[in-house]
C-alpha cells in the first residue's frame, strides 16, 4: 500500500497549474478554444442585435424624411396658391425664384 500522508500526495507537493497544463495539454487547449468560440459567438450576437437596431433606425429616418418632404411640398403649394391670389404677381415671382434655388427634395427618389 502507498504511504499516504496528510496532504494525500505521499509527502510531495501537489502539482501546479503549469505542471497540470503540461500533463493535460490537449484538455487545456480545448478549453481555451471553446472559450474563444463562446466569446466570438457572444460578440456576433451583440452585433446582430446592433444591426437590427440600426435597420429599424434607418427605416424610422426614411419615414421622417418622407414626411418632411411631403410637408415641404404642401407648404410650397400653399404659398403658391396664396401668391396666385395676389394681383400684382410680385409675390409669385419672388416665390418662383426661391423655389427654383431651393427645390423640395423628392420623397422616394433617393432610396438606396
Note the topology.
Layout: H1 17-23, H2 25-85, H3 90-101
Helix pairs in contact: 2-3
Question: What characteristics describe this protein?
Answer:
mainly alpha; coiled coil; 112 residues; rod-shaped
Brief account:
This protein has helices spanning about 15-25, 25-85, 90-100. With about 110 residues, the chain is an all-alpha fold. The termini are far apart.
Describe, in plain words, how this protein is organized in 3D.
The chain is mainly alpha-helical and 112 residues long. It has one domain. It is 71% helix and 0% strand. Helix 2 (25-85) runs antiparallel to helix 3. The longest helix has 61 residues, at 25-85.
Question: Spans with pLDDT under 50 lasting ≥5 residues?
Answer: none
Structural class: mainly alpha
Terminal CA distance reads 80 Å
Radius of gyration: 37 Å
Task: Give me the number of helical elements.
Answer: 3
Count of separate structural domains = 1
* Estimated share of beta-strand residues: under 5%
The residue-averaged pLDDT reads 83
State the major sheet: none
